[in-house]
Amino acid sequence: MTRLSPMHRFFPALLLLTLILGACSPSPSLLSTETAPAPTISLATEPTTLTPVGDINCGYQWAYQDLPEVSAQFDQAVKDLIPNSNSHATAFGENCIGADNQVVTFLAMETDFYVIVPVGTLEDHQSFGKWAAGVMQVVNNLPIEMLAGPMPGFVEFRFEKSTSESLILRIPIQQYQETAEGKIGEELFDLFYTKP
To answer: pLDDT tens digits, residue range 152-174?
Structure first.
């Protein structure tokens, strides 16, 4: 049996290390000093497949987009019910990413609503359900033309006792309309709350 010299044993490891370091090095196109417009928050890091949108081929990434006008109206209506709350609305959908990695367009799928409420205890499920019922009526009363996307989204409530203690209640809008309209208080809370 022939024994390999130390150099012959070292060479494959050196080759492997060179390949790994080469793959980790940024490409020259990533080192550009040009600043691009800030993209919306995306869930995927790579576009999926390239699909034509009009005359442009693009790939799709899940993304969110702020809805300032809807947020302002929604937040004010929720504050009328829960004065110390903060609320906003976002559109969930897909960014169409062109071959140059720029966002060509955003295709909204649904409008989602978020409500944050500071609370003294996380045990007051009766009040949480009462507030949720009021907020769901606010969402149902928003003009349909204000909402982005063809599908109903959800309303997510975050009841915060402290920065480290909170309770999340998420209510899908369509499910609420089909099964829970008219329910309030703990009955509504129990219908949608899932313990972590």
So the answer is: 999 999 999 999 999 999 999 99
